[in-house]
Design goal:
The protein has eleven helices and 20 strands. By secondary structure, the protein is of the alpha/beta class. The protein starts with 6 loop residues before the first helix and ends in a 13-residue tail after the last helix.
Amino acid sequence: MRVKFNYFKFKNYAVYVPLFVMIFAVACKEKTTDSTKTNTFEKKKEKPNIVLIYTDDLGYGDISCYGATEIQTPAIDALASDGITFHNAYATAATCTPSRYSLLTGNYAWRKKGTSVARGDQGLLIDTARTTLPKLLQKAGYKTGIVGKWHLGLGGSNGPDWNGKITPGPLEIGFDYSFLIPATGDRVPCVYVANHHVVNLDSNDPISVNYEHKIGDWPTGKENPELLILKPSQGHNHTIVNGISRIGYMKGGKSALWNDKTIPMELLQKSEAFINKNKNNPFFLIFSTHDIHVPRIANEMFKGKSNMGPRGDVILQMDWTVKQIVDLLKKQNLLDNTIIIFSSDNGPVLDDGYKDRARELAGNHNPTGGLRGGKYSAYDGGSKIPLIIRWPDKKGKGTISNALLSQVDFLSSFAYLAGIEKIPKDVIDSQNRLNVLLGDNPTGRTALIQESFMGPLSYIEDKWKYIEPLDGPKMVPWGPKIETGFQTLPQLYNLEKDPEEQKNLAAEFPEKVREMREKLANLKKDGFTNEHEVNLN
């Protein structure tokens, strides 16, 4: 039986002393004829499981523990009541691919060319030789798994072989198990990939995918709108799967197609299997939800239950999945030895390609919680996200932290917790902020960087935020009605006094602008700034 991890016992040491040193000290108090064997065993037993519930497009104001009043999320609220709620945490980018890249590699995605929003047939974006969070946790003795949305590419430079062995992928960058939505729910192919192969694929019906032109004779949203159960608002008018037209064209693989209404249940089932298989070892699981990304197709259990249309319904559905994960951990007697992290990959969007009336039915609900912008934007609505951590023994129960924190720090922080004393040099940006995650440091980072969808970066330091100038569109150009944050002159905001970023102080504080610009320029050295190429037609 595994020993439960006691954070109250270790809290005064967790920030300053590597975990393996603490375990060694405890083990030395016990008499043994083989101290090395005993220390190794004790270290293995003491390590907590780590479950990261990583949602998609969930805004700072989308859940009730962050102030939402038009919709209730009791399961997420329960995590907050038992844990620490972070009010000043950021994803590294305002879109999903770069945020996920940064979380796994510990580096800002703009340092690598080609890490803007990935196509559905993109090759693997993470170099298999690179340090990653799952690799480090594997080294520390963890079993590692990811279930759900991936969107970091699969296969070599020419993309995946959907009908053969799909490699490289998650298993080549540190995961022992993967069950994936390869890209997003609105991109083809609409199939699951387990480890190296498409699930339930009939070899007599091979899959073909093309993002440039139509292939095969499957109907498309553009040619056959009468077949649609959900019509596109912009783009999203290519191959129809399950009555929904997607981005990109596909044919074949009919036996492998997913059912949009049961995606959460399928992901939960695979997560349960992974947890059950590894419950006697320390494990790391990323449960990466499809919700609340488009297309928003709620299961019948949640359809029409929110009074806010499909977007509200899938928020309820997402909250239900959180409860299922927590209940599973309870059932297996793992809850008191498991760290649960809940967060989102970027800010919210209402109309993101389908006519699901998200904007019309939102009512008084404010997905950003009053922050300016949203998904894609350089403003805080793009990358300031909910973050909740429930620690074993409920350390920090019911508290709020205003410490500055970035998801890029997960790599160094959780590797340190697992006993990894030295992080390899290819990890540039991740900082060990375990003391912040534990609630013991109320200040957090000195500074961090945000990435918007066309590449301009923002630099936050203390109370100040600087946004690089860009002569670009003022609104996201394909229809979401979100401000990009792009202006031809520099922007400077005092986030302490003006969290909604309404008053540009650049003209009043030119020295501060110069200082922030120079600091950002130094941090950008050897980095490539991405541009988001959008093709929705």
